[in-house]
Amino acid sequence: MTQFLRFQPLYQDRVWGGRVLETSLGRKLPATGKPVGESWEIVDRPEAQSVVQGGKYDGLAIRALIERHAADIMGPKWDASRAFPILVKWLDCRERLSLQVHPPASVAPELKGEPKTENWYIADCAEGANLIVGLRRGVTREEFEQAVKNLTLENCVHRFPVSKGDSILVHSGQIHAIDGGNLILEIQQNSDTTYRVYDWGRVGLDGKPRQMHVDESLKSIKWDDFEPEPVRGERKSAVIADANEFRIRRVPLAKGEKLRVAAGEQARILSVVDGAVRETLSSSADDTGATLTRGENVVLPYAGGFAFEATEDSLLLLTENFG
After folding, report:
1. Is 196 one of the catalytic residues?
2. pTM for the full predicted model
3. pLDDT of res. 28
4. Which of 4, 147, 244, 248 is most exposed, with minimal Cβ within 10 Å?
């Protein structure tokens, strides 16, 4: 297993979505007429399986791939029955998402859910776009619960402006929402548990109000989490997210510069958020010369060694430490 792994995107209809993945990333979206809110780029869940696109393993689901090649992909100590631990998504947030929370590990079993820490990278955004993460400083649980009843929750949460290149790590237990006008690369724990506490009076694609999870949300929210700050975008190398679940490095490359990844260290995910790179030193002849363009997310297996050369000024994200 010495080739990098591309997967077919899995597109998800969402009431808050749009068609920006076509115009911004050059994707061909399903001609359903429905708003597409998410593209699941890498996922290993019972209800959703990424399928390899191209190369020796073309057409093979990620679960079958890991079961057959766990040591080569994830490392010699990896349990082949364990799911790939990261879920990568593109989010086209034409409209604001619900105000929501994911349960911390301490309460998730009681609620029969899964914890989910996630990182949002702003690949593009409209002028004046915002995010909501955490509580406004000083807000109490009692004030929050009253605001749920009064439909005045906007007064309780921390809303801040963002620009292209910004990012923020959102831990389980942090109340959050994404405002409209954001194109986001979300890199998260492999989880799909979301508790909605407020949806701004909106209805779903079926014309009915979407289900709320107020009790579960109140049990999950961290009540001392006030006004976290994003990592602002810069064209310099940096760790932009460092959690127990994963670490993300920002890697800018000028045209002609290379990113090298050694074999035998760990599995990683490479995301191209700007520009394009060409593989020049793959352990597999199938990969050498292959180009990755803006919007692509690939797995770099443990057993493979790679070098990616920027064919134009580029910005990459390298996700690691998820083993």
Report:
1. yes
2. 0.95
3. 93
4. 244
